[in-house]
């Protein structure tokens, strides 16, 4: 640790840090290459209504198909992309690609109500964000109503005025806003009045804490009650068990996302799932066969 390394003087830079530094450089060069070589892909995770029969939404989740390291997840590279200033290019690509995909599904008559796209903390700061999104909608001839942007509470409170300005402009185009990982961020709730928020996504950690026997006394109970009273759509993340699904359905949570229903899936697999719901085929017949990440 740094404490041990500095004990004898000021030698702060250790071989271990050097390795870490060059790993960062590799990763940064890798990210630049990935952008030009089209190594990013999007997997889509459906959101289900509470009885698990209908798909009400779908979330675009970024992956990096690394030529040597295999499929990488956002946790492996988003933070660095933010640090080195590449996140904006990645967001732009995600926006364009997921909007184009949604348009295809709308035309095929199998689109769910909304496609959710995650924004990074730095995206909201960009003055060109609103234009970037509305231009992508124009380019692909898709109505804003089909798009939901997922942002975190921390992102909003960093600059509430900028957030209000940008999100209000986006809402004027019919785009809806979801608060992602709700309950884990900054705790002031005053922004809920100030911003055009449509959806609360309850963080997975609260869903994991659901204890069926104990009712009406948990944080997640309070979150759901608040969501109802503010007339927001409530979506639970990370639903993994039937007991959790049942508990959430009883409390009139509107949507659920999690491994119990489906993992994030490559485009072709999720398209099969959408087709099955659109044609009222039994999802049970399709789900076991769909690909695994
Ligand atoms: P998130 O937006 O909260 O997305 C939910 C994460 O939970 C996803 O991880 C998803 O694969 C995972 N998940 C879904 N259901 C379950 C479940 O039942 N159990 C468990 N244990 N996990 C589940 P993923 O795809 O690794 O993404 C992690 C985070 O990276 C996302 O969290 C989001 O904040 C960020 N992210 C993903 N795509 C993008 C993107 O295009 N741009 C930006 N800026 N961030 C992104
Ligand atoms: Mg999300
Ligand atoms: Mg989330
Ligand atoms: Mg989360």
TrEMBL record:
<feature type="domain" description="EAL">
    <location>
        <begin position="24"/>
        <end position="278"/>
    </location>
</feature>
<protein>
    <recommendedName>
        <fullName>cyclic-guanylate-specific phosphodiesterase</fullName>
    </recommendedName>
</protein>
């Amino acid at each position: 640790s740094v404490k041990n390394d500095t004990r004898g003087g000021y030698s702060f830079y250790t071989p271990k840090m050097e390795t870490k530094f060059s790993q960062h450089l590799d990763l940064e060069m890798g990210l630049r290459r990935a952008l030009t070589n089209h190594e990013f892909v999007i997997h889509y995770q459906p959101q289900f209504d509470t009885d698990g029969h209908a798909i009400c939404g779908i979330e675009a989740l970024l992956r990096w198909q690394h030529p040597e390291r295999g499929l990488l997840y956002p946790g492996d590279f988003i933070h660095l992309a933010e640090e080195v200033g590449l996140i904006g290019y990645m967001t732009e690509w995600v926006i364009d690609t997921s909007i184009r995909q949604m348009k295809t599904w709308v035309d095929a008559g199998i689109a769910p109500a909304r496609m959710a796209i995650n924004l990074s903390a730095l995206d909201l700061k960009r003055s060109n964000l609103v234009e970037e999104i509305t231009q992508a909608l124009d380019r692909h001839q898709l109505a804003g109503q089909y798009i939901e942007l997922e942002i975190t509470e921390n992102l909003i409170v960093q600059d509430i005025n900028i957030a209000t300005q940008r999100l209000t402009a986006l809402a004027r185009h019919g785009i809806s806003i979801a608060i992602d990982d709700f309950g884990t961020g900054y705790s002031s709730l005053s922004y809920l009045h100030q911003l055009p928020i449509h959806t609360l996504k309850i963080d997975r950690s609260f869903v994991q804490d659901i204890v069926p026997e104990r009712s009406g006394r948990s944080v997640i109970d309070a979150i759901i009650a608040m969501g109802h009273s503010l007339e927001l759509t409530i979506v639970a993340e990370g639903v993994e068990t039937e007991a959790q699904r049942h508990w959430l359905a009883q409390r009139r949570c509107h949507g659920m996302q999690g491994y119990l229903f489906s993992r994030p899936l490559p485009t072709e697999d999720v398209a099969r799932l959408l087709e099955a719901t659109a044609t009222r085929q039994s999802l049970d017949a399709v789900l076991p066969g769909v690909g695994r990440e």
